[in-house]
Amino acid sequence: MLHIDLRSDTVTKPSPEMRKAMANAEVGDDVYGDDPTVNKLEEKAAEMFGKEDAVFVSSGTQGNLVSILSQATRGDEILIGDICHIFSSEGGGVSVLGGVVMYPLKTNSDGTIDEENILNAVKPDDYHKPKTKLFAFENTHGGLSGIPIDKKASDKMALAAKKAGLRVHVDGARIFNASVALNTSVKDLAEHVDSLTFCLSKGLSCPVGSVIVGEKDQITEARRVRKLLGSAMRQVGVIAACGIVALDSMVERLNEDHENAKKLAVGLAEISKVEINPDNIHTNLVRFKVPENTGFEVAEKLKEMGILINGSYTDLRMVAHYGIDNKHIDKTIESMSKVMNSI
Question: Which of 116, 225, 232, 244 has the lowest tally of Cβ within 10 angstroms?
Fold first, then answer.
């Protein structure tokens, strides 16, 4: 039976070129700054994003946590979108581990947050209130079918926050998907932000890892926070080698994932009792609705047919990625049609 895993782009397997790079990676002790492969990856990432420095971390969640705790401290407050991943799906880490308060702001349907809402949320200099230190947003926005936020909108939010004296962090787990979809460089998308985290282990298909880019002083502090969290690694070049391959050869192919996601969305839209607007699918995430309280049943029936997806009672998600091709999309649409006819 054909096995199709659409749960996430985190299920991707490293390419043959990555496996070869891992086997041949030159390594050293990264805690001492002696791993040449890690150093090369960090230098490459910083240059791509137009930032002064970068640091390799173990995951996107850790990247966001380290980024925020290197720019805000216990008792400080950050402003953040109310449906972004940092706020809803990272265990409240910045509060639990860092004592940093998260103040949620209404997220618009395009993933942006209104300038007025950002400015009005900044607390006055009053010892009754926490100090507002940082504003964070997400690009692409995973909670909104991976919608990419263009440079104009990104700049507007970042500059509004800076106008209020705040630092700006971007959860750019899928920033390369945004870059490809918008035909805009990641350097341009990150121009006015102080820090950005991007994942190597999602669409770029590495087995593990994320990278934080930012200013030299902030990255120096990020290394301190990374160590505090017990996450400084040793001969990590065997993993970082995959990141170099990914940045060299896996970015442009993301467009294939976007095309497959769009094809999937169009097919799903033609199935009875499936609610989705294909016009809202811009990158590789496909979110859709099924009749109330049938989501788990739909997912279970698809699993029996060899197709894995994620979802809940009504909202379901499928993700296109490296390893998913046209025949997988066709099979998924065909199987979904059979399942919905049985519901």
Answer: 116
What digits encode the pLDDT tens for the residues 86-131?
Answer: 999 999 999 999 999 999 999 999 999 999 999 999 999 899 999 9
Q: How far apart are CA 102 and CA 88, in angstroms?
A: 11
Fold of the domain built from segment(s) 253-342 = Aspartate Aminotransferase, domain 1 (3.90.1150)
Lookup: tokens for 5: 């895993």
Q: Is 119 helix (H, G, I), strand (E, B) or coil?
A: helix
Q: Where are the alpha helices (DSSP H) in the chain?
A: 16-24, 36-49, 60-69, 85-88, 93-96, 115-121, 151-163, 175-182, 186-189, 216-228, 237-249, 254-269, 295-304, 326-342
**Topology (CATH level 3) of domain 14-249:** Aspartate Aminotransferase; domain 2 (3.40.640)
Euclidean distance between CA atoms 44 and 31, whole angstroms: 19
Average pLDDT over residues 234-242: 96
> Of 24, 26, 13, whose CA–CA distance to 322 is shortest?
13
The answer on pLDDT for 30 being more than 80 is yes
Q: Which two tokens stand for residue 96?
A: 């639990």
- pTM value is 0.95
The secondary structure of residue 275, as a DSSP letter, is: B
In angstroms, rounded to a whole number, what is the distance separating the alpha carbons of residues 222 and 229? Answer: 11
| CA–CA distance, 166 with 115 (Å, rounded to integer) | 13
Tell me if residue 96 falls in helix, strand or coil. helix
